[in-house]
Amino acid sequence: MTAITAITPRTTRIFGIPAGDFGLFASTLIAVALGFIAFFAVTFLSIFGLMIYNGAGHHRVTLDTSYKLIGLPAGVLVLVVSYALLLGIWLRRRLTGR
């Protein structure tokens, strides 16, 4: 009796998650979703940080600072980095013919 093993192509993994089979639309959608998640998470944390800063030091920093100066740059940074990474994986797969 012989054992037949299926040869599976190696896929790119990011933190153990296979990410090599995403198309262009899926990569764009994932990058935008990661940007939104980062924006809202960092904004949430920065609002609490500013509340503590204002309460402890009797400062008058408005909460729109957390959106404009903290949350938006973090969200855009995560969007750009994740899109560049996923687009690079997609282009490498397309150029190698897999």
Q: Which value, in Å, is the CA radius of gyration?
A: 21 Å
Oligomeric assembly: single chain
The description of the largest β-sheet is:
2 strands, antiparallel
User: What is the straight-line distance between the termini?
Assistant: 32 Å
Helix content: 55-70%
Q: Strand pairing plus helix content: what structural class?
A: mainly alpha
Approximately how much beta-strand content do the residues carry?
under 5%
Helix/strand order, N-terminal first: EEHH
Q: What average pLDDT do the residues reach? A: 86
Helix segment count?
Answer: 2
Low-confidence stretches: none
Biggest sheet, spatial arrangement of strands: 1-2
Count of strand segments: 2
The outline comes out as elongated
Which helices and strands, and how do they pair?
Blueprint: E1 13-14, E2 17-18, H1 24-57, H2 64-96
Antiparallel strand pairs: 1-2
Helix pairs in contact: 1-2
Description of the molecule:
- This protein has 98 residues and is mainly α.
- It has helices spanning 24-57, 64-96, and strands at 13-14, 17-18.
- Strands 1-2 form a two-stranded antiparallel sheet.
- The model has no long low-confidence stretch (mean pLDDT 86).
